Amino acid sequence: MIESMETSAMSKLVIITGMSGAGKTIAVQSLEDLGFFCVDNLPPVLIPKFAELIEQSKGKIGKVALVIDLRGREFFTALSESLNYIRDHYTISCEILFLDATDSVLVQRYKESRRRHPLTPDGMPLDGIRMERKLLEDLKGWANQVIDTSNLKPAQLKDRIITRFMHADQHLMSINVTSFGFKYGVPIDADLIFDVRFLPNPHYVEQLRPRTGQDQDVYDYVMKWPETQQFLAKLLDMLNFLIPQYHKEGKSQVVIGIGCTGGKHRSVAIAEYIGRMIGASDTENVRISHRDAERDRH
């Protein structure tokens, strides 16, 4: 593993895949901005040949991104064999980036763009989406990183990708701590989910209700309770154990979800605290985000 990480700065291959309409075009454009050589819709059976070209370039082609999707589905079953071949025969660091979104969001995007789903060009988009999700189920499990773009604007997705891959040569563990509201659904790209709905709720304090956990008075309210401090001590102890284990196994990114009812008060405050505490380490690149904090701000 150490040898592979040392060579990744010279030769890194990122496979961009996922659901149609989830943002692969934005992802490849973002990596192009970072200096990646990008190829769209490459058949998986050609990946080993492409890896050979990267090796023969002697560093001239150091960072490559390939978009693999169901437009080449007749070759899709070859992807696993191709990636295993690369790992067995080359020193190239290979990573899979999987982009996903909820069915309802994907349907809405198809309606807005007036595009047809590639699997059901003459049918309903939802039928194609469900078929595609089943076909990609195993591939999603192989991914090094899954990004849920359901609630991300294009600029936010670009920022996520640039933040992740601009540190690729520094060998840092990338950690995303995100707050969310359970009533809006659980983040589908989260590796770890923690429910803080047991904590006293600032929503029932009239002067705190319109504010978020990023406001100092709300933050202080959430933090002042003994159960909060006990929970944080236990959670940090577990994360300090888990994160090095993930890193040891080659995982380059972890998404930690902190949820409360609406994603506005308790989860935001806890995510801010956890992110700052983890971010104090020089072995991780930590990003804090709040998915639902501003939903009802108006």
Q: How are the SSEs ordered, and which strands pair?
A:
Layout: H1 2-7, E1 12-18, H2 24-33, E2 37-40, H3 47-56, E3 63-67, H4 79-89, E4 93-100, H5 103-113, H6 125-135, H7 137-142, E5 145-148, H8 154-165, E6 173-181, E7 192-195, H9 216-223, H10 226-248, E8 253-260, H11 266-279, E9 284-290
Describe what you observe in this structure.
This protein is of the alpha/beta class and 298 residues long. The protein has eleven helices and nine strands. It has helices at residues 2-7, 24-33, 47-56, 79-89, 103-113, 125-135, 137-142, 154-165, 216-223, 226-248, 266-279; strands spanning 12-18, 37-40, 63-67, 93-100, 145-148, 173-181, 192-195, 253-260, 284-290. The strands form two sheets. It has a five-stranded parallel beta sheet, with helices on both faces. Strands 7-8-6-9 form a four-stranded parallel beta sheet. Helix 5 packs across helix 6 and helix 9 packs across helix 11 (266-279). It is globular, with a radius of gyration of 21 Å. The model is unreliable at 1-9 (pLDDT under 50).
Characteristics:
alpha/beta, globular, 298 residues, 5-stranded parallel β-sheet, 11 helices, disordered N terminus
The arrangement of helices and strands along the chain is: HEHEHEHEHHHEHEEHHEHE
Helix percent band = 40-55%
Q: Sketch the major β-sheet.
A: 5 strands, parallel
Mean pLDDT: 84
Low-confidence stretches: 1-9
| Count of alpha/pi helices | 11
Spatial separation of the terminal alpha carbons = 49 Å
Question: Shape, please?
Answer: globular
Q: How large is the radius of gyration?
A: 21 Å
Structural class per helix/strand content? alpha/beta
Tally of strands: 9
Strand order of the largest sheet: 2-3-1-4-5
- Classify the beta-strand content into a percent band: 15-25%
Assembly status: single chain
